[in-house]
Amino acid sequence: MLSVKEAENIIFNLAKPLNNQQDIETVDLFTATGRILASPVTSKLDFPHWDNSAMDGYAVIYQDVKQASEEKPAVLKLVEDIPAGYQPQSNIQSGQAARIFTGAVMPKGADTVVMQENTRREANQVFILAAPKPQEFVRYRGAYYQAGTELLPAGIKLNPPEIAILAASQCTKLNVYRRPRVAILSTGNELVTPDEKLQVGQIVDSNQYALAALVKQSGGEPLMLGIIKDEPEALKQAISQAISKADLVLSSGGVSVGDYDYVEQILASLEGEIKVRAVAMQPGKPLTVATFPISNSPIYFGLPGNPVSALVSYLRFVQPVIKKLSGIVEGWKPTFIKAQIRQNLSSNGKRETYIWGKLNLVDGVYQFSVAGGNKSSGNLIDLAQTNAFAVLEVGKLSVNVGEEIWVLQV
Ligand code: AMP
Ligand code: MG
């Protein structure tokens, strides 16, 4: 059986980012948040757009005021008032100054701004009471960004700061990667949808919903293919349909060793190359990963049927794959954080063990609290508000309160 690390290597290497020419769409700024840039962005604007003042004060010529002090102020004649948004008319000559406000355009001739606090005003004269530094409080055109150079690189996620940058730079149409398409199907004769009346022995297909929610959260587009019976023909048809239209296929159930577990057999009949059969982790041991001998083959993930196991396998392996496919260059890998544990943890030590819980930052220290209730991999109910797993490596039988342990943040 593969270790988690070995399985991770195989799976992450299978994942190839979408194509930055074909797999793109154009979005506007309002819908761009969370999307991944497919082409670098350049702006036609310098930033700042004009030489402007960083202070309320007076625009002056440095040479005129470099000796100024409280005892020997430089006295300048005011020739113009320049509020923000106004185009200055004057050309400042030696002995002159302009009243200027934060963000307002510098007048020609002036090279320095003296802050208001270091001045005294009398009628149309200003007394400069302290020498500024040369070019002080002037924000020069193009000091932060020069028109035509790269503003944002491809492969980054557009978060609120990037949206602000793009708005300020008047870049309102953006090439982003399309969302990876993820087909989701649930296998099992016992399954019904959440709105069907439950007969004895039936189980509600929660995995379909959980996986769709996760796929959306990971930046993918879920294609819900519904519940498929444990019948080879029905499964074959559903899986081949899924393969033909998705970048990833997620099925849950049917990958264990039971009599009705047909997934691997169907994958083989579709010429699937099985890359992973099982992983030495707990929960989540049954995991089938396959690709197909076609161009742009989707990656097939046969996830365990148990709701908790399905979610663990998804978060450990599928989420990073969707993020990598989505074109993001950095930050697609799982995030592990060292945290102090608040309860004793134990494992049989045979497989890497994932324990659900909640990660909190308390006084600057990460703390991990185990989810309450029954730890059965069928018990979803106590997962509410969890956001992490504590990870006990193989051979680790116990960890005591207060010890630090790696925690997978999800
Ligand atoms: P399997 O791997 O198909 O044997 O399923 C293992 C367990 O998970 C069984 O108890 C199933 O009833 C349950 N299960 C399978 N698929 C789902 C699903 N889509 N939603 C909720 N529970 C499921
Ligand atoms: Mg089943």
TrEMBL record:
SMART domains: MoCF_biosynth (SM00852). CDD domains: MoeA (cd00887). It comes from the Bacteria. InterPro entries: MoaB/Mog-like_dom_sf, MoaB/Mog_dom, MoeA-like, MoeA_C_domain_IV, MoeA_C_domain_IV_sf, MoeA_linker/N, MoeA_linker/N_sf. Its EC number is 2.10.1.1. Gene3D superfamilies: MoaB/Mog-like domain, MoeA, C-terminal, domain IV, Molybdopterin biosynthesis moea protein, domain 2, Molybdopterin biosynthesis moea protein, domain 3. GO terms for biological process: Mo-molybdopterin cofactor biosynthetic process. GO terms for cellular component: cytosol. GO terms for molecular function: metal ion binding; molybdopterin molybdotransferase activity. Pathway: Cofactor biosynthesis; molybdopterin biosynthesis. Residues 183-324 form the MoaB/Mog domain. It is an enzyme of class 2 (transferase). It catalyses: adenylyl-molybdopterin + molybdate = Mo-molybdopterin + AMP + H(+). Keywords: Magnesium, Metal-binding, Molybdenum, Molybdenum cofactor biosynthesis, Transferase. Its cofactor is Mg(2+). Catalyzes the insertion of molybdate into adenylated molybdopterin with the concomitant release of AMP. PANTHER family: GEPHYRIN, MOLYBDOPTERIN BIOSYNTHESIS PROTEIN. Belongs to the MoeA family. This is Molybdopterin molybdenumtransferase.
